[in-house]
Amino acid sequence: MTLSRRRRWFLLLLAGLVAATLLAGVAGWPGAAARPVDPLPSWNPGPARDGILSFVRQTTDPASPRFVPPGERIATFDQDGTLWVEQPVYPQVRYILERVPGVVPSRAELETLAATVLAGMPMETFHADVRRWLDTARHPRWRRPYTELTFQPMQELLGYLRASGYKTYIVTGGGQEFVRVYAERTYGIPPEQVIGTAGATRYGYDSAGRPFLTKEPRLLLNDNDAGKPEGIQLMIGRRPTAAFGNSTGDRQMLEFTSSGDGPRLAMLVLHDDARREYAYGPALGLPDTRVGPFTQGLYDEARQQGWTVISMKNDWKRIFSFEP
């Protein structure tokens, strides 16, 4: 090989090495290399997280035998205790108590009391009153607005499901109109996708002849226990593909969901982290409670039915968005 050829070969080799080095550097620049984005960064590795990822992959891949058409991708979520803090008292109960001091209603009595107390109130006035209360009310432990006390892992799950073509609904034992006030800005769920305990309304006209709706003291739907699948059928008309809850009030919704044909996902949040949130059951020997009870019977049914129990303590890296 002549000297000029050697020199040309050496220069080509050097240019190739420089180009490879530059490409490697560019690949490390932000946006240059498409690294996989973790859709559930607040979840610890484990059966709960893996089950969600596997379910979504299988049901959204057209080549999968478990593929679910987009129109049938329905996911329902309880709210209190599943999407935000429910202890030491349901937020809506506190709202009602501040309007009727000295009364401590059970969950079953809540909507009857609410219907009585708020009877005759125009719907728009009620919505404005709830917005004012949410702007000023603070949780007694964290001294933060209730809308800041949503569970970050569940917020990520909502976003992941929607990005995968799922339509997300809230199915709550709480008041339908109460939750509709803040559901969209808090969870990204529009009011028409909120199903809750519903009272009657009456159509009428104000003094200027403008039509409006007034709350009436009559219960239309108790959206708890068996009322949840009944409300789902009434308002959605499809059996959910996935359902998420945290208490005995969600049992029938998970039964209804998991008994359908094809792939199904049913999950229950277990509050077992007193340090970061609260610990209550009474499943697994946790303290008993009247607010969102998770009984041993529900835990046993979950195991028998193949439902996933999400441990707050073990499955969630962080609980709230404001945690470091």
Describe the structure.
The protein has 324 residues and is an alpha/beta fold. It is 38% helix and 15% strand. It has a single domain (44-315), classed as 3-Layer(aba) Sandwich (Rossmann fold). Strand 6 (265-270), helix 11 (296-305) and strand 7 (308-311) form a beta-alpha-beta unit. The chain is globular, with a radius of gyration of 25 Å. It starts with a helix and ends in a 9-residue tail after the last helix.
Blueprint of the fold:
Blueprint: H1 3-27, H2 47-60, E1 74-77, H3 91-97, H4 107-117, H5 123-136, H6 152-163, E2 167-175, H7 176-180, H8 183-187, E3 194-205, E4 211-221, H9 227-235, E5 242-245, H10 251-258, E6 265-270, H11 296-305, E7 308-311, H12 312-315
Parallel strand pairs: 1-2, 1-5, 2-3, 5-6, 6-7
Antiparallel strand pairs: 3-4
Query: What proportion of the residues form beta strands (DSSP E)?
Result: 15-25%
Order of helices and strands: HHEHHHHEHHEEHEHEHEH
Report on the biggest sheet: 7 strands, mixed
Q: Low-confidence segments, ≥5 residues, pLDDT <50?
A: 8-32
Number of helices: 12
Cα distance spanning the termini: 64 Å
The number of E-state strands comes to 7
Write out the CATH superfamily name.
HAD superfamily/HAD-like
Strand order of the largest sheet: 4-3-2-1-5-6-7
What overall geometry do the principal axes of the alpha carbons give?
globular
Oligomeric organization of the protein chains? single chain
- Indicate the structural class: alpha/beta
CATH topology: Rossmann fold
The radius of gyration over CA amounts to 25 Å
Q: What is the level 1 CATH name?
A: Alpha Beta
In total, the number of domains comes to 1
